[in-house]
Structures are given as C-alpha cells and as structure tokens.
Write the structure tokens for this entry.
Amino acid sequence: MRAWLFLAASCAYAAGLALGVRVWPVSTASFVVWACGGMLLAALAARSAPILFEGGVPVVAWLLLGGASYPHQAISELPLAAMVLAVAAFETRSRVASALLLPLAAAWLVAASGAQVFDPGWYGWATLAAAAVQLALVSRDGSRAPWGPPKIVDLVVCSYSGNTAHCARAFGEGMKRAGADVRLHRFHYYPDFDEPLDGDALALAFPVVGWKPPWTMVAWMLWRMPRGRGRPAFILYTCAGGPENTSLAAWLLLILRGWRPVGRAWSIYPINVVTFRLGPRALWRFLDRLFPIGYDLRATEDFGSRFARGLPSGQPHLVWALPLFLIGFLVDNKLVNTYPYRNRAWRRRCDACGICVRYCPVGRLTIRDGFPRAKGTCTLCFGCVNLCPKRSMQLVAWTEYGNAYKPRFPDLVVKRRERSDLSDRSDPSDVLPISLPNPSCPILRP
Ligand SMILES: Cc1cc2nc3c(=O)[nH]c(=O)nc-3n(C[C@H](O)[C@H](O)[C@H](O)COP(=O)(O)O)c2cc1C
Ligand code: SF4
Ligand code: SF4
C-alpha cells in the first residue's frame, strides 16, 4: 500500500515536472528545488539514504552543461523523472507498474518537450540511452520470478581499509538471520584468490575505486570467476558518495559470467583516499564519524535477510549519462598502474616493520636493503600508506601532503601475508621480527 502511494506521488511529481518545464522559464533555483524534491521522494520510497546522494548526479551534469541556458531542458530533466518513477515502481514489485515504465517515460518526454524541435545533441542522446537502460533494468528486476531461498551463500568481500567488510558484515548477519549458511571469502591477495563458489547464491561486496569495482576484482570477474549457471547474485558496495554507474558495471560483469544479478545496494563510508584528506586531522576525524549512517546499516541487514529468503531486495539500479566508470577502467588498470604510482618509504622514519609488505594485495612490495621497494602493478588500495605506523610510506603523485586514513574498523582489515613473501633476501636475520594481530579477520560474528 505504502509503495503504491509513493508510485502515485511519483506520477504526480513527474506530471508537475513536465508542466514546470513547459510553462515556466527554467532557472537554476527551480531546477535545484525540483531535483531536491525528486531525491527526497525517491529516498523515502526506497527507504535509502544513499539515493539522496545518487540523485544529485543529474544536477551536477545539468550545471556542467550550462544549467538554465542549456537548450534541451526536457531531456536534461528526464533523468529526474525516470529516477523517481523507477524507484517507486521498483518498490511496488509489480510487473504491471514495471512494464509501464518505458511508455510512461516516453509520454513524459513528449509532454515536457511540447513544440521543441527534437534535436537533442550528443548529451541528449546519452541521457535518453541512460534513462532507457535504467528503466529497462528496473522493469526486468521487478518482473523477475522469485528464486528459492538459498541454503548456502558465498559472500565474497573485497575491502582494503575495512569499510566494505563492515557493510558486508551487516548484510551477512541479515542472511544468517534468515537461516542461510554464509561462507565468507576474503578477496584480498588477488593472485591467490581461487575459490570454487559452489554455494546456491553469491553476494559480492567491494569498494568503489574510480567509479567501478577495483581493477583486481574486475580482472577476476572477467577471467577467473566461476560460472554462475543462472544462480542469483547480489551486488553490495561502499564508497565516499560518488559511485555513479558502478552497479551497472558490476551487473554487466556478472551477466557475462552467467550469474543472475537480483539486487544491489550501496552505502556511504569515509573516504580512504589520502590525497583528498588535506586540512586538519580533527576535521577528518569528525567527518569520518558521520558515516556509515545507522539507518543505512539496518537497511543493509534487512536487504541481506530478504535476499536469503528469496525475496526481491536492495535499491533499484540508477543509471546516469556520465561515462565516468569508462574513464575509471582506462586510468586504473593492471597495465597503467605499473607506471605512474611510485612507492617511496621515508628512510629516516621507516623501521622496516614489513606491515606494508604483508598487506599489499598484489605482492608489489618487498623489503630490500632494509626498506620496502615496489615492483609491478598497484591496485591503488592505499593500504601501504594508510597502515604505515610511522607515516613513512608515500605513493608519489598521490599522497605527499594528505592525512592517512586510519581504518575505522581495524579488526576487519586483512593484515597478514606469509612470512616467506616478505623479503627477497635469503638471510632470514635481515627480516625484522613482525608481530601482527590475528589474520583471520572475522566478518561474521559466531
Ligand atoms: C583509489 C581510490 C578511488 C576511489 N574512488 C572512489 C569513487 O570513484 N567514488 C567514491 O565515492 N569513492 C571512491 N573511493 C572511496 C572508497 O570507495 C571508500 O572509501 C570505500 O568505503 C573504501 O572501502 P574499503 O575500506 O572496503 O576499501 C575511492 C578510494 C580509492 C582508494
Ligand atoms: S609499514 Fe611503514 S615503517 Fe613499516 S616497512 Fe612499510 S614503510 Fe616502513
Ligand atoms: S603498493 Fe600500496 S597502494 Fe599499491 S597495491 Fe600495494 S599496498 Fe596497495
């Protein structure tokens, strides 16, 4: 009933927006008011705080394109109408409501465009395509046949500073509450990750790195991930508030491997990019404490429980006409990352404790001549910089001036690599003694 009320409110919102675009001259203020209204409506319908952030994307794109002077107002406001309608229809879980999404959006565009000459330009075409993909994705999700409650769920967790592990824990506990047997797999040491994933369903958790999953996870999904054979999969990710089309990228990769993505959810966590952490540490400590939002964590747990009971759950896919994730693939991949990012340990501070070496997910670091040295590619996880107890490690070109992100959930950070991987020197006495916390990294409480 509640969902249907939101659908009615969303239709009224879309009608008002179409009328607004046609009748009154568009100004920045009016656009921002409509956008805020749409974001609030969508967030309330989905009971999801992150949607408030996601809904801001069309506003940014619109402002970048010239705002009120952009000639194709109806098309630039289509993403707002499409988002509100898609979220509300998704929440009803009704095939009919979902099936009506595309014709409804087309009618909205005709009504809002009025007598405008249909010459949308490249951005307009991109917007149309993105809105169509979003509505098609939601229609498909909503009309899917339910899957049987999975007995065993493989929970694959990629998490560098512990944020995603924290979010995955909430999801995992929801699944356990629903009676599923959850098998945890930490995706960290990328070259070694080779799990059979033979459970009945999959939950995949990762941090957003450059508007997409980390390249190590993309590479694993493309080449080494076991085939899904139609089994259901849930996409879970954390980021600092700007995921854009990450879920679309993960969705496509899962489809390519034969999985059946049945839901996605994301949460806002503190940013772990050192470069952006300029300014006083007290400010960052304060900002870090704001996230994750408790409400959001409870929603994540609930999503886990619904997923494990074979019920539709999560937030609908939102797709934007921003090609940021494509740029992410170009600037952050195995080949490119071999060159621009250079590790430097400040010799006067480094005591060769080896924490960075043990942590590095791609085995890029080794201790040589008493100091960590880098060879090969990097995943930009920032672990070596963030976890260095002496604030000695730098990732040149990125981290010279930033504050390190000291993990909010240190128990959930992977901390150990086998001692034999630590050094390429043969004399064991050259390797300083290392004492690190228990590496088992429990995510799910017993
Ligand atoms: C290299 C790098 C790129 C990132 N790119 C994004 C991004 O595009 N959008 C975003 O919102 N957050 C981005 N983040 C922030 C992380 O997604 C966020 O802090 C996440 O919660 C980290 O999770 P983890 O602790 O599980 O690794 C980036 C972080 C790193 C290190
Ligand atoms: S963690 Fe820091 S102090 Fe320890 S070896 Fe690495 S750079 Fe040196
Ligand atoms: S060198 Fe540092 S940032 Fe790069 S993958 Fe290794 S630990 Fe992560």
